[in-house]
Design brief:
Arc Repressor Mutant, subunit A; 39% helix; single chain; alpha+beta; 499 residues; elongated
Length: 499
């Protein structure tokens, strides 16, 4: 992090932060927005292409109807005004991953107009984020810079371009300037993008995987002295692809801009990039305004007509929304408001739900996802979905406990090994021989050794005082490296004391 940055608490006390988010949600249609090429994440580079994907001369785009329908459903879930007529325009700029030298997007006639999304914060309060538009566009390809640090172009020896992603349908959800959040601005931003991800997944229109780049956010931040002043000059940090990154970007930019303003310096309107390694943003290029892109209606595409009947037909297909689902699950699981808030703040609702559906109790699922697994996520500084553990792993560990094959201590050891990527729970238990020792003869030998090592305790037990039985149980657990069945050991000690 850069030196001499103002503390965040001081920055939000001296300045009023205003932010805006442009969230790109990649739709999970089988084919691309304007051509029949299929797209799968991770496919061999430059294999999922047609002449339209490349923008070759003479190739003509045809709109993917399913992408338009998915975009409308997303707009409806965000309380957007669905426009009867929308239009695709050419957004002109040169970049190696844009083979046409223009992007097909929507400008003055978007599919989805104004809307809003209410998000819940950690303290249980709700904040409304106003949405300006949710328009449809096609994605660019992907540049990979070889030889530089962390894949950045700075210091790279050369760059490679994969055009597979070129033409994949996106919905870009653009907020209005978000005011009034104050010190909660980073939390509001993170909660908003999490809510968008949950809605997109609930609708089935996107996988919402930030780590795969099919959902990413441009973070705009500006400061002003008071809420009565005009908006300040904004920076735009591009393509932030994690919830933590979005929140950290906002904190850093608020501190950076507050430092510059307090020193009498100007804020440059520019694009920036979040660097996870340095935990700071870095300057990119001077930010272009809309007129710099020379938008004009795409002459190869007619306007999209969406009838009221079509809108209502799509509205009828909307599933249970995340907030209603959350309330239903809380009631079914018997969680208190505080317990459910912890689940939501950790972002593990879907993981717990899937774990319960696979066969464990809500309490058991919550224990693991908010315990060892969440701690590991926090320690590594990664999203919990990026860990190697799955809901099925949690179910398998719980079943091993229920069957008596492992105890709670061994279960924690097993989960630690799963998180290290050593394999599945049953395989790990077998590999390390971590099954509970329940053989009476083996346990009785350990008990005899413990009694011999503690003659005073043995005498107390023989006289009928069973209070020190825990001493012997503890010794046996230590001798068995935690693999003894404690209840069975206690029962055997009691029987031997009675002889």
């Amino acid at each position: 992090m850069a030196e001499r940055l103002m503390k965040f608490s001081e920055a939000v006390e001296r300045f009023d932060p205003v932010f805006g988010l442009e969230v790109h949600v990649e739709l999970s249609t089988v084919t691309k927005l304007f051509c029949p090429a299929e797209y799968q994440f991770g496919a061999e580079p430059n294999t999922e292409l047609t002449p339209v994907s490349f923008g070759l001369p003479g190739s003509l785009p045809v709109v993917n109807e399913k992408a338009i329908e998915d975009a409308i459903r997303l707009g409806l879930a965000l309380h957007c005004q669905i426009n009867e007529w929308s239009q695709f325009s050419r957004k002109n700029y040169f970049y190696p991953d844009m083979p046409r030298n223009y992007q097909i997007s929507q400008f003055d006639k978007p599919l989805n107009g104004e809307g809003y999304l209410d998000v819940e914060l950690a303290d249980g309060t709700t904040f409304r984020v106003p949405i300006e538009r949710a328009h449809v566009e096609d994605d660019a390809g992907k540049n990979t810079h070889i030889g530089g640090s962390d894949g950045r172009i700075e210091g790279a020896d050369y760059s490679l371009v994969d055009y597979n992603r070129s033409g994949v349908p996106l919905v870009e959800i653009v907020t209005k300037p978000v005011v009034g959040a104050g010190a909660n601005a980073p939390e509001v931003a993170g909660a908003y993008v999490r809510a968008l991800r949950d809605i997109a997944r609930a609708l089935g229109v996107s996988h919402g995987r930030l780590e795969q780049g099919n959902m990413r956010a441009d973070v705009n931040v500006s400061l002003r002295k008071s809420p009565d002043d005009p908006l300040g000059t904004r920076s735009e940090t591009k393509n932030v692809n994690s919830f933590r990154g979005i929140e950290k970007t906002m904190v850093y930019e608020i501190r950076r801009q507050a430092t510059l303003l307090s020193e009498g310096k100007e804020i440059l309107q520019e694009t920036r990039h979040w660097d996870e390694a340095t935990q700071a943003t870095a300057g990119g290029r001077v930010k272009s305004d809309a007129n710099d892109y020379r938008y004009f209606p795409d002459p190869d595409l007619v306007m999209v007509h969406t009838t009221k009947e079509k809108i209502e037909k799509l509205r009828a297909t909307l599933p249970e929304m995340p907030r209603e689902r959350r309330n239903r699950l809380q009631n079914e699981w018997g969680f208190s408001d505080l317990e459910m808030r912890d689940v939501m703040n950790a972002g593990v609702l879907d993981l717990i739900d899937e774990t319960v559906k696979l066969g464990t109790t809500p309490a058991g699922a919550r224990k693991w996802w908010l315990g060892e697994i969440l701690r590991e996520s926090n320690d590594r500084g990664v999203e919990i979905e990026e860990l190697s553990v799955t809901p099925q792993d949690v179910v398998d560990v719980e079943k091993l406990i229920e069957s008596g094959k492992i105890n709670n201590k061994l279960a924690r050891q097993t989960m630690e090994a799963v998180l290290k990527g050593e394999g599945r729970p049953a395989d790990i238990v077998a590999k390390y021989g971590w099954e509970v020792v329940s053989d009476d003869s083996a346990l009785e030998t350990m008990i005899d050794e413990a009694l011999a090592a503690h003659p005073d305790v043995a005498q107390e037990l023989k006289s009928g005082n069973m209070k020190p039985v825990g001493v012997i149980v503890g010794e046996v657990m230590k001798a068995s490296h935690g693999q003894a069945d404690a209840r069975l050991v206690s029962s055997l000690v009691t029987k031997r004391a009675g002889k």
